[in-house]
Amino acid sequence: MENLSIIICAYNEEDTISGVVSACCRYNPKAEVVVVDDGSTDGTAAALAALGRSYRFSYERLHENRGKSWAMVHGVLHSERDIVLFFDADVSRITREHFSSLVKPLLEGSADLVLGQPRETMIDYRVNPFKSLTGERAVFRKDILPIMEDIREIKFGVETFINLYYQAEGKRIQYVLLDGLVHPNTFEKISMVAATRKYISEGQEIALTYMEYHNLIIRRIQNRINQANQRTREKLNRLQNNLERKIEEFLEVF
């Protein structure tokens, strides 16, 4: 697809980065592939250098680890195509269909933001409280460009910011299931007890961090729509209240 930019942000992903980048290039020969190395200290740079002899992609290396949000912005600003597809650097079993599933709703005009959820995760997709935080997401470049600096400065919570901003703007969000795509935190790779403990620990960390950052996220969205009508403001307030309620419910579980 000629009007597609695929952005892969990586930090210390020497074990998986080659498979991800090669799949993105192989299944999308006409797309622009941009890899942002967020200051990796392992063998990620060497793996990408070796891969560059077989596949064509842009390599952007940050000299220090700036965080995912910074890397995402760097990737967008160093890409040119109309559709931007973010792809995680630590997934496996990527197929051609995963890319078409993410991009198709945009091309058909049924969505403005497409979120892809791997089926092979630690928890069932249907009850996964973190499915909106997926790294596999497709957007129109024109929609995300105006919030680049907001994204850069959010640091943690970038996915939440993007989701809430799109909702506040009345954009259409669609979830798609990416059959076969495997995220590394699966019960299959570690014992069930260890995986459960890991899931609970990560869940608590995410929820607590949301409590710290979600006010910042809401304020930035309010600044973005401060010229909007009352109906939009009311919708934003409902989104904020809903987010706070979900955080409280999640913390009660754990």
How are the elements arranged and paired?
Elements: E1 4-10, H1 17-27, E2 32-38, H2 44-51, E3 58-62, H3 68-77, E4 83-88, H4 96-108, E5 113-120, E6 136-140, H5 141-144, H6 148-154, H7 158-168, E7 173-182, H8 192-224, H9 230-253
Parallel strand pairs: 1-2, 1-4, 2-3, 5-7
Antiparallel strand pairs: 4-6, 5-6
Could you describe the largest sheet, including whether it forms a barrel?
7 strands, mixed
SSE class? alpha/beta
Q: Give the uncertain stretches in residue-range form.
A: 121-131, 186-193
Question: How much β-strand is present in the residues?
Answer: 15-25%
The proportion of residues forming helix, as a percent range, comes to: 40-55%
Overall CATH architecture of the largest domain = Alpha-Beta Complex
Task: Tell me the name of the CATH homologous superfamily of the largest domain.
Answer: Spore Coat Polysaccharide Biosynthesis Protein SpsA, Chain A
What is the name of the CATH topology of the largest domain? Spore Coat Polysaccharide Biosynthesis Protein SpsA, Chain A
